[in-house]
Amino acid sequence: MAAFPARAETEGLEPYFKELADPSEQGWARAEADIRRAWSRSGSATMDLLLKRGEQALDDGDADAAIEHFTALTDHAPDFAAGWNGRATAYFMAGLYGPAASDIAHTLKLEPRHWGALAGLGAILEEMGDDARALEAYRASFALNPHQQDVKDAIARLEKAHQGTAL
């Protein structure tokens, strides 16, 4: 089956990214929701259904089913970053860090501002013991979206663990 020309509609999101990146912005939650909504729309009802099924499998803790749904999505809509990011999450859940990192790289190629993919990369690198690169990924994610408490905590944890050493 040929690839479907699905791709998230990300034009015009710059004002939302500016609101999101401002720690004092009151409308950040709405901006974040608007960005996530835009990222989740492929332009194809079929591809959007595959995304929803993959996300439901993740919510159910079924990494194998999620990988299947997201693989179908990335096969048929290779320019849709949400599919790659979803599969990266499923691979991470399954403990498959190499494939997860590869899919994160693909996600970031399609959407360099994907703070979730950057946070995921940080988690993978931290799990692998590469704290310097993990911290770099977490900081990049936090710069895009400073409202992520888990990322803020990860940065603080790594900075504290490496106080007095060069990271």
Automatic annotation (TrEMBL):
MF (Gene Ontology): molecular adaptor activity
Protein name: Uncharacterized protein
TPR repeat residue numbers: 115-148
Superkingdom field: Bacteria
GO cellular component, one term: TRC complex
Record keywords, A-Z: Repeat, TPR repeat
GO biological process, one term: post-translational protein targeting to endoplasmic reticulum membrane
UniProt source species: Thioclava pacifica DSM 10166
